[in-house]
Design brief:
Layout lengths: L1 E8 L6 E6 L2 E7 H7 L6 E2 L1 H26 L4 H10 L4 H13 L5 H15 L4 H10 L4 H9 L3 H16 L9 H11 L4 H11 L2
Antiparallel strand pairs: 1-2, 1-4, 2-3
Helix pairs in contact: 1-2, 2-4, 3-4, 5-7, 6-7, 8-10, 9-10
């Protein structure tokens, strides 16, 4: 058995505490963990048991934080990992939590991609290039993104481009010689390829 001899704020990260047992450093944890476990100087604790408790409580709080984020909106594995690390959870705990959530299906990058594409297609039509950029910016690996985009057929992408262009043309005039260039630039920014853009412009502004 040992005695907690000090609980000190860390110099570089003031919201973390270093726990010492019998004068020796045991673990560094967030201040909320110290409060949750009711740790205090003078407590008698088995060193290994204390480490075990600290890890279990830290993992529980990390998992709760991750689930709150997922419940707010779907997120990629990378987004959850980065957010937990930013919230000062140890990388070892973060990896265990994200692995556990992935195994239970609460984190699923393939589903995340499919749902992202579906939502974007409904609210703000975009081409494959823009969708790929957005998904990769969420930390989804390239192969998973490519696989999800393969399900987006060329005709579907054309329909999306046509829908976006029709909305844009409500504020434009096809009689204006600059309209085609402006519409082309707009669709390009939305991530549509040149062949699709040409088809759409030929259809709407012949």
């Amino acid at each position: 058995m040992g005695v907690i001899t000090a609980i000190e704020a860390q110099k570089k990260r003031g919201n973390r505490r270093s726990i010492f047992v019998d004068g020796e450093f045991v673990a560094g944890v967030h201040e909320e963990i110290v409060l949750a476990l009711g740790l205090a100087v003078g407590q008698v604790f088995d060193r290994e048991r204390l480490v075990e408790l600290l890890k279990a409580e830290t993992k529980r709080k990390a998992r709760e934080s991750a689930i709150r984020l997922i419940n707010y909106r779907d997120r990629s594995v990378s987004e959850i990992r980065q957010r937990l690390i930013r919230d000062d959870f140890p990388e070892e705990i973060v990896e265990e939590v994200t692995d556990q959530l992935s195994r239970t299906g609460l984190l699923d990058d393939e589903k995340f991609c499919r749902d992202w594409i579906k939502a974007r297609s409904a609210s703000k039509p975009m081409g494959k290039a823009r969708l790929a950029w957005e998904l990769r910016s969420k930390g989804v690996d390239a192969s998973t993104v490519d696989q999800a985009l393969e399900e987006l057929a060329d005709e579907t992408e054309y329909d999306l481009a046509l829908s976006a262009a029709v909305r844009k043309l409500r504020k434009m005039d096809c009689a204006d010689p600059l309209t085609k260039n402006r519409l082309s630039s707009f669709l390009r920014r939305r991530g549509f390829d040149w062949d699709t853009i040409s088809r759409v412009i030929d259809e709407l502004c012949p």
